[in-house]
């Protein structure tokens, strides 16, 4: 089914994106882009509203992403910009001149990639906001969701063609999977399995790293599912015995040598 993108999705999917803030800032708070009123809301892990307008005066905010320093980036769909919000919610324009930007993704080097849903490209920016390539990838079909795998390949959900594109480091796109009904959100979990939301069928499909379908109904009965977020695995804390062992090793390593 051919579908054109509009600035605001139906009310059932109004909360367009949610991301977890990195551990070194406010621990695991959840941020939500409110497309209709141009704000970002912040919740704590229990669901308590901390700030209804952590960010405001945005322009139909869609995709969200955090950089390694805890700054939040927002794709402003309507005015073609990406806003950068500091820890206090103060917004500055990070990038402009985009074409209905929909989703964002950072690579391991800190470069930001933006899905331009209107002109069917993905743009690349450095961590300072310098445009590296306005069309890092092109020839897509209403790209909306973006995600990187563990090897640094970028994946784009093409809403109108039902294709997930795999884009290598040179920007060359190939078909990873096809036949999905309005794919939108993408997320990688362990072993580089890819999870894809199907907006039209209300399901989440799961694919392995080669693009083979594992299941077409990992989850079903959803109401126009949009984006996905994966909770990171907790970092194990060292045990008391491990700490004591490290301390003992340090003491032994400092023992003065005997003269011979």
How would you describe the overall organization of this protein?
- With 260 residues, the chain is mainly beta.
- The chain has one domain (11-253): Neuraminidase.
- Helices cover 5% and strands 43% of the residues.
- The protein has one helix at residues 240-253; strands at residues 15-20, 30-34, 39-43, 49-55, 61-66, 72-76, 81-85, 91-95, 101-106, 112-116, 121-125, 131-137, 143-148, 154-158, 163-167, 173-177, 183-188, 194-198, 203-207, 213-219.
- The radius of gyration is 21 Å and the shape is globular.
Please summarize what this structure is.
With 260 residues, the protein is mainly beta.
Main sheet record: 4 strands, antiparallel
CATH topology value: Neuraminidase
Taking all Cα atoms into account, the compactness measure Rg is 21 Å
* Average residue-wise pLDDT: 86
Helix share, percent:
under 10%
- CATH architecture group name: 6 Propeller
- What share of residues are in beta strands? 35-45%
Computed structural class: mainly beta
Q: Strands of the biggest beta sheet: in what spatial order? A: 1-2-3-4
CATH homologous superfamily annotation: TolB, C-terminal domain
Shape: globular
Assembly classification: single chain
Q: Total number of β-strand segments?
A: 20
Number of domains: 1
Instruction: Tell me the number of helical segments per DSSP (H or I, 4 or more residues long).
Output: 1
Spans where pLDDT lies below 50 across 5 or more residues: 1-17
């Amino acid at each position: 089914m051919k579908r054109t993108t509009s600035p605001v999705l139906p009310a059932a999917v109004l909360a367009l994106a949610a991301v977890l803030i990195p551990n070194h800032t406010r621990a695991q708070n959840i941020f939500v882009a409110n497309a209709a009123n141009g704000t970002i809301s912040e919740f704590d892990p229990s669901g308590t509203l901390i700030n209804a307008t952590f960010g405001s005066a945005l322009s139909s905010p869609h995709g969200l992403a955090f950089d390694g320093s805890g700054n939040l980036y927002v794709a402003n769909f309507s005015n073609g910009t990406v806003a950068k919000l500091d820890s206090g919610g103060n917004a500055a324009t990070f990038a402009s001149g985009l074409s209905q930007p929909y989703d964002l993704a950072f690579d391991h080097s800190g470069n930001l990639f933006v899905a331009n849903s209107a002109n069917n490209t993905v743009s690349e920016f450095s961590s300072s906001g310098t445009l590296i390539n306005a069309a890092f990838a092109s020839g897509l079909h209403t790209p909306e969701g973006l995600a990187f795998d563990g090897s640094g390949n970028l994946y784009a959900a093409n809403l109108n063609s039902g294709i997930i594109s795999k884009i290598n480091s040179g920007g060359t796109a190939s078909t990873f999977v096809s036949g999905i009904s309005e794919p939108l959100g993408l997320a990688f979990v362990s072993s580089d399995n890819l999870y894809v939301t199907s907006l039209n069928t209300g399901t989440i499909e799961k694919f392995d790293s080669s693009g083979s379908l594992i299941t077409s109904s990992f989850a079903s009965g959803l109401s126009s599912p949009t984006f996905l977020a994966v909770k990171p695995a907790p970092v194990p804390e060292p045990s008391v015995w491990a700490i004591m062992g490290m301390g003992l090793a340090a003491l032994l390593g400092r023992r003065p040598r005997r003269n011979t």
